[in-house]
Amino acid sequence: HDIQFNFIGYVVMIANVFASTSYLLYMRYVMSRDEEAKSFFDQWTLSYYNNIISLPFLIVQCSSELQLYLANSADYNYFQFYVFMIISGINGLLISVCSLWTISVTSPTTFAIVGALNKVPLTILGFLLFDVKINVSGGISIALGLVAGFLFTFSKIVYK
User: Fold this and answer.
1) Other CB atoms within 10 Å distance of the CB of residue 43
2) Rounded Cα–Cα distance for residues 137 and 120 (Å)
3) What is the DSSP letter of 76?
4) Which residues, 6 or more positions from 119, have their beta carbon under 8 angstroms from its beta carbon?
5) Euclidean distance between CA atoms 121 and 90, whole angstroms
6) Which of 11, 37, 101, 127 has a beta carbon 3.0–4.6 Å from 33's, enabling a disulfide?
7) H helix count then E strand count, the chain
8) Which of 82, 106, 80 is nearest to 27 (CA)?
9) In terms of Cα–Cα distance, which of 5, 23, 1 is closest to 108?
10) Please, which residues have CB within 8 angstroms of residue 43's CB and are 6 or more apart in sequence?
11) CA distances from residue 55 to 30, 48, 51, 58, 121 in whole angstroms, order as listed
12) How many alpha carbons lie under 13 Å from residue 68 in its C-beta half-sphere?
């Protein structure tokens, strides 16, 4: 088994939670400031700026992968590879736009809960596709995630 406690891993995850929450709250603030800001900072504009901001990280990653690409360039000369790369880029753009739209119409808490809960079906699908035996702790984790999602949804409906 490769599951074990790693202090650095938990520190990185906690930092990720704080960074994601701060980002979501800031984006919510920017998108709801005033009418002029709302008209300029629509989902497409924010998605464009978010993707531009990520370009330096992508360029660093691509420059380190360039030698690997040149060594195995025969693998990347298929039409299907380029079609899948274009589809992947379009999907990334649409996910970014949809995420920003979701932030604008829901609360950051709801967005975070939905982001956490979408892992439950993926986990179940992973168990089924990769023929992994579900142990007690895995079953409890899945059940806990489902119960948390139902309780959150129930509380949003009842206390609305």
Assistant:
1) 17
2) 14
3) G
4) 145
5) 24
6) 37
7) 7, 0
8) 106
9) 23
10) 97, 100, 101, 104
11) 22, 11, 6, 5, 31
12) 5
Residue the block writes with tokens 């975070």: 112
| Local structure of residue 118 (DSSP, 8 states) | T
- 102-125 pLDDT per residue, tens: 877 887 777 777 777 777 888 888
Separation of alpha carbons 143 and 137, rounded Å: 10
Contact 103, 28 (CB under 8 A): yes
Nearest to 145 by CA among 111, 121, 126, 109: 121
Length reported for the chain: 160
Distance, CA of 76 to CA of 33 (rounded, Å): 46
CB 145 within 8 A of CB 119: yes
Asked if residues 150 and 121 have their Cβ atoms less than 8 Å apart, the reply is no
Torsion 65-66-69-71 (CA) sign: negative
Q: What is the pLDDT of residues 58-74, one digit of tens each?
A: 787 777 666 666 666 66
| Cα 44 to Cα 96: distance, rounded to the nearest angstrom | 9
- Rounded-to-integer distance, Cα 123 and Cα 138, Å: 9
Q: Based on C-alpha coordinates, what's the Rg of the chain?
A: 20
